[in-house]
Specification:
Elements lengths: L6 H10 L12 E2 L2 H10 L7 E5 L5 H9 L2 E6 L5 H7 L6 E5 L7 H9 L4 E6 L5 H10 L4 E9 H8 L9 H9 E9 L4 E2 L6 E8 L10 H13 L5 H6 L8 H10 L13 H10 L2
Parallel strand pairs: 2-3, 2-5, 3-4, 5-6
Antiparallel strand pairs: 1-8, 6-9, 7-9
Length: 285
């Protein structure tokens, strides 16, 4: 089958099937073999691996994954793409096509069926409109996943890996860094896609921790504090916490907890590290 990383081959298959690109699915197809190789290299795919690909699209990245992996489970939500995928991946016996919404798929059962319960390596060129829900679902569900190597909007990739005191630092940064070690491995310009997106992209690799870098008695409680802190990020942390109805924390309680931690009562949430948010969750009632 022709390499879909080459633009004229992608255009030919789109024309052959008279395929209309669906904005609702955020479809932007990669057309740069160098970027495709970098994604597979960054994911460190070998014949020992079973790869879970989310949103294979036309099968462009899937072709590259199938060359290196033992098996690939390619989950595509758009049923109109299934006949195209059956053609573009016909040469690969190690690819299983699944027409489903990844957020509704039993990934634990799939791991049992395809990989003896061992964890997947997730690789994807993710639709930008649903990047964060998919990544957080993979992490929070403690799905059987070893690494997540994904193409995302550059701004979102930056947000995932930054630390305190930067404008991009927020609830997503802390959530991702609680579950995994993030690393941007490539920046990708808009001209590497059909159609061209309006923003730059980046490939980020998340390596999941076996145990989180901080220990808390109640994860939900800590993340509720984090959300409250960043929902009103221009306010002091004391005011942001006491203004969050779900927390039921008084201004006095918040100020006292910060004082016990040696932090100023005028500090903002964006200045706290993950460790400090974990400490705050222990200090507050």
């Amino acid at each position: 089958m022709a390499d879909l990383g080459i633009p004229q081959n992608t255009i030919a298959i789109l024309q052959k099937y008279n395929f209309n690109i669906q904005k609702k699915y955020g479809q932007n197809f990669l057309i740069d073999p160098t970027v495709l190789e970098r994604i597979v290299d960054a994911a460190e795919i070998s014949k020992e691996d079973c790869v879970l690909e989310i949103g294979p699209g036309l099968g462009t990245l899937t072709q590259y994954l199938a060359e290196r992996a033992g098996n690939v489970a390619a989950v595509e939500i758009d049923k109109k793409l299934m006949p195209i995928l059956q053609e573009t991946l016909s040469a690969y016996e190690n690819v299983t096509l699944i027409n489903a919404d990844i957020l509704k798929l039993d990934i634990f059962r799939l791991a049992e069926e395809m990989n003896g319960g061992r964890p997947f390596k997730v690789v994807a060129n993710l639709p930008y409109y649903i990047t964060t829900p998919i990544i957080m679902w993979l992490l929070e569900s403690r799905a059987p996943v070893k690494t997540v190597t994904v193409m995302v909007q550059k701004e979102v990739a930056d947000r995932m890996q930054v630390g305190p005191g930067t404008k991009d630092y927020g609830a997503l940064s802390l959530a991702v860094q609680y579950y995994a070690r993030p690393e941007i491995v490539a920046n990708v310009p808009p001209n590497c896609f059909i159609p061209r997106p309006n923003v730059g992209s980046a490939v980020i690799r998340l390596t999941e921790y076996e145990t989180p870098p901080v220990q808390v008695a109640d994860e939900r409680r800590m993340f509720a504090l984090i959300r409250a802190a960043f929902n009103q990020r221009r306010k002091t942390l004391v005011n942001a916490l006491c203004n969050a109805p779900a927390l039921d924390i008084t201004k006095e309680q918040a100020a006292a907890a910060l004082e016990r931690m040696g932090l100023s009562p005028t500090i903002r949430g964006e200045a706290l590290t993950l460790e400090q948010f974990a400490g705050l969750s222990k200090e507050l009632p």
